[in-house]
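Narrative of activities, Objective 1.

The group set out to show that a structural description can be obtained from nothing but a protein's sequence at a throughput compatible with the screening campaign. Below is one input-output pair from the validation batch, recorded exactly as produced.
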Amino acid sequence: METTIAAFAQASRRARITLHTYVVLLKPRVMSLVVFTAAVGLIVSPSRPSAMVSLLVVLLIALGAGAAGALNMWWDADIDAIMRRTRARPVPRGRVTPRAAMLFGFATSLCSVTALWWLTNTVAAALLAFTIFFYIVIYTIWLKRRTPQNIVIGGAAGALPPLVGWAAATGEIGWPGISMFLLIFMWTPPHFWSLSLFMNDDYQRAGIPMLTVTHGRPATRRHIMAYTILLALTATLPLVFEIGGPIYGVTALVMNLGFLRGAWQLMRRDEDQAKRDHYKAERAFFRYSLWYLFLHFSALVGDVGLSGWSG
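Output recorded for this entry:
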């Protein structure tokens, strides 16, 4: 009896470890951003589906994004093993084989796209399929190891979830959805370039041509400033296309002034000073960028609530 109980406990533990490993393959931290922005795309649309359908749509979009993450870990296993930030991932740690990660990614991609097509419409399913394709083929396989523009162009994949959510609700690609896509698309370069300012050694060891590696940190700081200016202009688009209201307007004004101020400070930073304080300002700018996106999309939801209350 005791032997049976011990065997059952051991099998249960192995099952939990396996489940956790495959959940990690889906990049749950990245998936949380996908879930949130995709949900906002649904919420701000003029024809929201039922709560149950909306929940399933968000889960399927997240599953598709997670599938892309698993395929990314399969392809990038060699450089993930080199970088401090990624060497604990399941494939370089040997918890799952590259082949298993690949098969899991392809199977999950197929299931998520097919289920979204069945549940909603062809436009949303096609956009989700394109998101997965773009992240794996265009960004991971083609751009990431070849050009410092990897983040600029590849950022389109991470910017698509709210547009997929919008299309799932409306059946079309509309300018309001595109405005949310462009907000994330323009946010991605300063967000990741600020990370590369204090993680540059990782990228150098892995041979990834981030802008800090190919052009140096001073040039990267100037690029962050330029893209932050473009981002501030892009942040007005939800107001232009009337999915943003007074809450969004105030949030965008405050957050973009803070982001511009931070980018200006980064551009004027001396490298010796940055090294001495362990890139404190750069890390603070990176953290601010996370709040930037979260608060912009939260404000869009807030305006939907305000509109419903006033109506």
